Predict the 3D structure of the following.
Amino acid sequence: MKKIFIISIVGFSLITSCRKEEINKIDGPSLEDLNGAFSVINGLESSKDSVDFAAGETVFFTAEIAKTTPWKLRVVGMTSGAEKIMTGTSKIIDASQTLWNGSTTNLPLFKTEICKVELTFPGLPDTLITDVKVINPKVNEGFLITDFETGFNPGWTSFIQSGADMDFQIKSDVTAPEGNAYYNMAGTVDWDWLVGLINFKATAYSGATVLPLTSNPNNLYFNVMVYGEVGLTNSLVLFQFQEDEDANGTFDSATEDLYSHQITIDWVGWKLVSIKYSDIPCLVNGSPATANGNGQHNSDKINQINMLHLANPVSGFAKSKLDYIIFTENGPLNP
């Protein structure tokens, strides 16, 4: 009985201590967070005045408020209009939540520019403001087909129909999603689906007959920024990927694979379109078909990419803009 009594006392003691811990434990927000007044303890600050993203630098933003509150941090390029948005719910805002490497949430991409930084709190009128200067924008890893910044590569070829209001040219203005240039494709062709095209030949880059890409099509992504015009939904952009399977320096459409990615431009403004190379189908007149070659996506054997602007000939004037055509590995482009 004595041993049992001791064990019982110890058991009671453990139960009592557990109950005390449970009583003292607070689940959920404190009363201060629920009912306390909102106030700013430390205003919004940037960890540095200027940042060189191209050199791998980063910047973060800090602030402190009196109670746990939802917040939204918005970085806006004063020249580009690019946006980086970060959100959270906390009293203290620090590097763990606001570290910025120069990426963007909404196109365009950031440029060399002053950026305005705003910290707002949904449902509250308070807005905290600071700024940071981007010395050089972020550099994205990948194989760049073109961003049109250096003009028309003499190694490319093109074809433009003799339709009405044809406007196929590189243009430079502040609306470009990356840099200052983009390719404009526009016109009316009432007898053919093809409006115009550019052929990006592998030999235009390093002189080799194939592009320097990974052999793993499941790890390779094709990315392009495409602009949709207000009031126009009839434009199609078709990218064709020619594979030189026998490595003879040319493409034979009868015996080698041609994969095609068709983009229906049914939105307004700039949009990033990304697709894994192994997911790109073989198309004939817009419908899936069997490839004429080995039926495998040999991404390391691409010898030419064709960019075609298409529109139903009865649909009238069609227009689109394209920029920043790039292959990335390990995932889609994170601009």
